[in-house]
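Researcher: We plan to redesign the surface later, but first we want a full-length starting point. Tokens attached.
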């Protein structure tokens, strides 16, 4: 029943208003009482009560109960009977509203057929039986009606209450749930015309004229009016017109006018009431059905529009054809794909979008499918060619689905994707792939050739080394002989030779000695390529200190210093050879230097830029000497290559020091390069690679 707060001023005023309305309308009803003084065929309070519970909730029961009690007690009924009847009427409204809510939803506005049917079944038929049974039994118990009259009284009671539920409740509910009226000028005019027609109906049926000789014919004229109201003004129109028509019919009958008053006495009001109920129900069902249909048409149209929007926005083309191949729908993407607009193709045969040879077989293919059910494309999808408006062909992917509509009509919908781009990309990819294969083939061949060259080179290097060794070794003997002979000559014949002879003999001795040196170098060089490395870890810093000590005299003599700016990391290498590399580079740095103070810097870099690319873990030997022009940066590594430079004219050498250095570095899988320019000093960089032991 809710909290105490619910019973506020609003509730009280609602209850009082309901009591008053109940009482007033019950008076109207009783004025038409026919079967018994307390039972009337027209009982609007039932409809009012039902609507009140639906609108304000079950708490309003008090108003119903008090209204019904008041209405009956004032009809000089015993208090107990009036109480029972009041309870019956209250129960009726509560049961009807509960059932309606339960089966038609919380707000049964009668806009749907389901609402109307629930109203008829649960309120008008079932709930009214409660009131009729309690009421009639009370009357009989109270002795106000003989038990023999039980059923006629029950029936009239039931019918009267049902009339209230069908005529009055819908009027209140439809206006309650939809109270606003917004009519256009034309709508208002039409409503006025309908009202006029209703009034005319009243005038005509009240005239009692014997048109067509059958007075009973007139009631049927309510139907056009109800249909008009239903079609043009919906549920509210129907409930209003229905209420007015019933009011006219009942009013006239009460005044003994109109067609119903002509009927056999006693049954007049029953017939009238039944007729009003039937007309009311018909009107309600019709307006609800019309509205549902309009709603579903609206939804259908809405979903159609939505579908069209979707179809027009998909990237793939979508075509629907019927069994004859006639195009029925064609989306926007198709226009882009084929070049035709929808207006140009819809209604025409789909063959227009196919190349000649395929089009020729299309009809045959479709009819064959119809007969045998054997499909080539349907449900599978495949690649075909399409024909554009401009006559060009393009590759497309087509997948077809069959759609069976009602009455055995079949449609085929095809999804089309223009795959020209993909095909082109595939072609390009293939070409790239072929090219790649070609290059790989070439590379393989080059690799084989390179391998052969390397092998050849190795062999010829080996041969060269062998030759150098043999040649220098074999040359040593006669050269030694030459030197000995020259020494003999100088010793034994120095008194007999003139100055010129002696000078030439000295020259011969010098040249032989030089040749011996050169041959020695050559022999050493060939040995560098042949002997194995004695690999071990070398502390480079320590090695530099040792070299510094070994060269102490020279350094002092030349006013030179060897500096190491930061500590040098150890390397795995052949120690003797590495010392030789450093000593050679340091010696050159001092030899080819015209500065009063010669500075040699030995360092290490994590990273350095070389002509052949970036290198890591690089050692360097830098001097402030005469420098080397870039065009000689390679030549200086060739054996016996010396550069002409007046600033270094006094320096002796065979031109093989750097050749040894390079050979040693290469044997250590390292690289050597330099940065230098005349007058700007020289920096020799080298790396030491990993050596297989
Ligand atoms: P050598 O010193 O016996 O002549 P190298 O092979 O050591 O033979 O050097 C080859 C030539 O490279 C030298 O003759 C010299 O002209 C040049 N050279 C070598 N090192 C330097 C240097 N640090 N500065 C300038 N020139 C150099």
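Model: Full-length starting sequence:
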């Amino acid at each position: 029943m809710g909290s105490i707060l619910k019973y506020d001023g609003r509730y009280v005023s609602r209850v009082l208003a309901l009591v008053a309305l109940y009482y007033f309308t019950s008076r109207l009803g009783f004025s038409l009482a026919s079967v018994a003084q307390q039972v009337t065929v027209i009982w609007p309070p039932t409809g009012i009560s039902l609507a009140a519970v639906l609108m304000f909730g079950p708490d309003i029961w008090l108003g119903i109960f008090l209204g019904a009690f008041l209405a009956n007690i004032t009809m000089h009924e015993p208090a107990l009977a009036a109480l029972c009847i009041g309870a019956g009427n209250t129960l009726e409204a509560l049961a009807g509203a509960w059932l309606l809510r339960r089966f038609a939803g919380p707000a049964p506005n009668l806009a749907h057929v389901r609402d109307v049917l629930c109203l008829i079944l649960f309120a008008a038929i079932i709930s009214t039986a409660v009131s009729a049974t309690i009421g009639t039994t009370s009357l009989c118990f109270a002795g106000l009606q003989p038990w023999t009259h039980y059923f006629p009284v029950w029936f009239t009671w039931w019918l009267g209450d049902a009339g209230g539920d069908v005529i009055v409740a819908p009027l209140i509910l439809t206006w309650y749930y939809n109270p606003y009226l917004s009519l256009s000028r034309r709508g208002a005019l039409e409503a006025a015309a309908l009202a006029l027609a209703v009034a005319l109906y009243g005038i005509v049926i009240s005239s009692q004229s014997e048109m067509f000789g059958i007075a009973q014919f007139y009631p049927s004229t309510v139907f056009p009016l109800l249909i008009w109201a239903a079609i043009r003004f919906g549920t509210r129109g129907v409930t209003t017109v229905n209420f007015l028509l019933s009011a006219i019919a009942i009013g006239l009958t009460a005044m003994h006018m109109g067609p119903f008053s002509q009927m056999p006495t006693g049954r007049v009001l029953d017939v009238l009431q039944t007729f009003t109920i039937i007309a009311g129900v018909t009107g309600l069902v019709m307006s609800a059905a019309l509205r549902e249909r309009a709603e579903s048409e609206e939804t259908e149209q809405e979903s159609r529009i939505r579908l069209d929007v979707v179809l027009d926005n998909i990237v793939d083309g979508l075509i629907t054809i019927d069994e004859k191949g006639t195009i029925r729908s064609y989306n926007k993407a198709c226009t882009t794909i084929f070049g035709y607009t929808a207006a140009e193709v819809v209604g025409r045969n789909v063959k227009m979008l196919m190349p000649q040879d395929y089009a020729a077989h299309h009809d045959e293919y479709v009819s064959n499918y119809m007969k045998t059910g054997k499909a080539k494309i349907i449900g599978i999808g495949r690649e075909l060619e399409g024909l554009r408006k401009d006559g060009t062909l393009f590759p497309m992917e087509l997948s077809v689905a069959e759609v069976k509509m009602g009455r055995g009509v079949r449609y085929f919908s095809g999804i089309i994707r223009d795959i020209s781009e993909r095909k082109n990309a595939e072609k390009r990819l293939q070409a790239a792939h072929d090219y790649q294969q070609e290059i790989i083939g070439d590379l393989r061949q080059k690799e084989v050739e390179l391998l052969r060259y390397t092998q050849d080179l190795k062999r010829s290097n080996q041969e060269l080394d062998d030759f150098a060794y043999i040649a220098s070794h074999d040359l040593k003997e006669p050269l030694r002989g030459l030197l000995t002979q020259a020494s003999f000559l100088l010793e034994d014949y120095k008194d007999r030779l003139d100055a010129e002879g002696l000078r030439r003999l000295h020259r011969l001795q010098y040249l032989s000695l030089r040749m011996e040196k050169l041959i020695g170098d050559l022999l050493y060089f060939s040995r560098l390529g042949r002997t194995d490395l004695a690999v071990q870890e070398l502390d480079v810093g320590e090695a530099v200190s040792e070299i510094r000590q070994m060269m102490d005299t020279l350094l002092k003599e030349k006013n030179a210093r060897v500096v190491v700016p930061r500590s040098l990391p150890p390397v795995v290498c052949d120690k003797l050879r590495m010392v030789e590399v450093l000593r050679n580079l340091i010696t050159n740095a001092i030899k080819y230097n015209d500065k009063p103070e010669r500075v040699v810097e030995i360092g290490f870099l994590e990273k350095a830029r070389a002509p052949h690319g970036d290198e890591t873990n690089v050692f360097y030997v830098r001097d402030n000497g005469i420098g080397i022009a870039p065009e000689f940066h390679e030549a200086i590594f060739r054996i016996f290559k010396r550069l002409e430079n007046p600033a270094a004219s006094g320096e002796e050498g065979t031109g093989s020091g750097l050749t040894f250095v390079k050979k040693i570095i290469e044997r250590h899988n390292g690289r050597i390069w330099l940065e230098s320019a005349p007058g700007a000093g020289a920096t020799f960089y080298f790396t030491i690679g990993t050596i297989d032991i």
